[in-house]
Amino acid sequence: MRRNGGRRGRFSAFRDGGLFLATVFLGILIAAKLDQINSETYVGRFFVIDGDTLSKGEDRFRLLGIDAPELAQTCLRDGGSWPCGEEARRVLQRLAGARDFSCSGSSRDRYGRLLVYCSAGGQDVSSEMVSAGFAVASGYFQFSGEQAAARRQARGIWAGEFEKPSQWRREHRAADIETPAAGFLTIIRHLLGWNHG
Known about the structure:
Layout: H1 2-37, E1 40-43, E2 47-50, E3 53-56, E4 59-63, E5 66-67, E6 75-77, E7 80-82, H2 84-96, E8 102-108, E9 114-120, E10 123-124, H3 125-131, E11 136-137, H4 144-152, H5 165-171, H6 184-192
Parallel strand pairs: 4-9
Antiparallel strand pairs: 1-8, 2-3, 3-4, 5-11, 6-7, 8-9, 9-10
């Protein structure tokens, strides 16, 4: 009798634990979907300010998950200095020139910029910036694979030496520019592909 009760007890605890985890996961999916309802989406032509900031009319947008060199920032490559901030801007301009370029987000930073994920040609723009070596991954585990590949293949800023953009800003007192953290629900929506549509 003790043996049966022990097995049933373990099975019951396992089943209850599984139900609990399934309920938590379902709750996260529902919350992420509800957060998507509050999401704002913009399409069309954007003006590129730097490698991770855009504008459209009066609205400003900040790409989530990445931190690109600042416009005035330089990096070292082949024994010389090169304008990596300007090059990061050019890479984002090329991506933003796609006909189907769009950005969506649901929250703003303290400067009023909409925090967004953007897509162009079916590709995630933040991922493309990190893959090209013109931005570093800035949050959680997002884009870490892209960054590792860019570093391994010495693409963009990884072809030489550079200061992390956050460090460069601290040293040059660019206090009005910060790297926003993506919210948990935003990351879940992004991973599930719910940001665009």
